[in-house]
Write a structure and sequence with these properties.
Elements lengths: L10 E9 L4 E6 L5 E6 L3 E6 L7 E5 L4 E6 L6 E5 L3 E5 L5 E6 L7 E5 L4 E6 L2 E6 L5 E6 L6 E4 L5 E14 L8 E14 L5 E6 L4 E5 L4 E5 L9 E3 L5 E4 L5 E5 L11 E3 L7 E6 L5 E6 L3 E6 L5 E5 L6 E6 L5 E6 L3 E8 L4
Antiparallel strand pairs: 1-30, 2-3, 3-4, 4-5, 6-7, 7-8, 8-9, 10-11, 11-12, 12-13, 14-15, 15-16, 16-17, 17-18, 18-19, 20-21, 21-22, 22-23, 24-25, 25-26, 26-27, 28-29, 29-30
Length: about 350
């Protein structure tokens, strides 16, 4: 275990908070580092300023339970999935449009690939792919079980869908759409593709990860978690995969042949609290995490540096995201606290 350090070169400061009024399901900071977006389970969407006065304001209130939210490519604003089967696009000015509607299904997962110009979302057993040009539906991918997670590979040519007993891999440009199956028993609840495209990893109901090295199909169990590792995040190059699900931050080294047969790095000292969400810095080997007792922590994986702050709510952190330049963190909690932190990683 790497010891935690009261690092002078890694620090959190300038905590700003606001009451969002309900469980925070999603958060992101826009690609221009200006807007901070928060999605609340009751359908409220808040937008604040990343620099200057934070002061979030409601830009939309949807008549659904808000399940997922990401930044909309090409033009900004937010894409939102709800329990009413709709995918919404919300502009910074509050304008709203429905891109897709699948009644009776939940839109729990959203992905986008700006360079290729596609948006993907799951609705029950189906994954739908839309073009960002006009939002028309281009592809529908059917599965035998409900889809729990989706991910697009870095070039934007393949889509992975996790479900019971494994993952289905689809070539998005193929005429014949038959998926390649990566099989592993049990329920897979989330999927993540490494930034270098070499690994695909799922979180499972059995308190472990399962991963595949795509070049040769070698698979691996990554176990030892105290809870379900629902949140996964990769460092920029794909060298490290960091996850929630333990009292420390669990970090797998995926360099070379990958983490097969190796033990993970554990960042921080174990406490009674559990890491609930993680997000890797957009440029450095630094990771941010939220815990179930309200702590926000930032750690440097390679230097072993550590800094933390407590939110005023003191409850489970449910969402966390970096600014694209890596100087700020946005977060939300189970009780509805939404917040913004300044982070110094210059010497880290």
């Amino acid at each position: 275990m790497r010891p935690a350090s009261a690092a002078k070169s890694l620090d959190i400061r300038g905590l700003q908070t606001w009451s969002g009024g309900g469980h925070v399901t999603s958060v992101y900071i826009s690609s221009d580092s200006r807007g901070v977006w928060f999605g609340i389970a009751d359908g409220a969407v808040y937008r604040g300023e990343c620099h200057g006065g934070f002061e979030p304001k409601i830009v939309a209130r949807l008549d659904c339970t808000l399940l997922s939210m990401i930044e909309a490519p090409h033009g900004g604003g937010a894409l939102i999935g709800g329990d009413d089967g709709c995918v919404y696009r919300i502009g910074a000015d509050g304008t709203s449009s429905v891109l897709a509607h699948h009644p009776g299904r939940w839109v729990e997962n959203l992905v986008a690939h700006a360079e290729v110009g596609i948006i993907g979302f799951s609705a029950g057993k189906s994954v739908h792919v839309l073009s960002t040009q006009g939002g028309h539906e281009a592809i529908c991918l059917e599965h035998s079980n409900s889809v729990s997670g989706i991910a697009i590979n870095p070039p934007g040519k393949r889509l992975a869908a996790s479900h019971y007993d494994g993952v289905s891999l689809w070539w998005l440009g193929a005429r014949e759409r038959t998926p390649k199956k990566l099989n592993w028993r049990g329920s897979h609840i989330a999927v993540s593709w490494s930034p270098d495209g070499r690994f695909l990893v799922t979180a499972t109901q059995e308190n472990e990860l399962h991963g595949w090295r795509l070049a040769d199909g070698m698979d691996m169990a990554m176990s030892g978690y105290a809870a379900k590792p629902r949140s996964m995040s990769w460092t920029r190059t794909g060298r490290y995969l960091v996850t929630s699900g333990a009292p420390t931050l669990t970090c797998w080294n995926c360099a070379g042949a990958g983490p097969m047969g190796s033990k993970p790095i554990e960042l921080g000292e174990p406490t009674a609290a559990m890491a609930t969400v993680v997000a890797c810095h957009p440029r450095k080997t630094v990771v941010a995490a939220g815990f179930d007792h309200g702590q926000i922590a930032v750690a440097d994986i390679e230097l072993g540096l550590w800094a933390s702050a407590m939110t005023s709510a003191g409850d489970r952190v449910t969402a966390i995201a970096w600014a694209p330049v890596g100087d700020a963190l946005a977060f939300g909690t189970e009780s509805g606290l939404i917040g913004l932190l300044a982070v110094n990683t210059k010497a880290a």
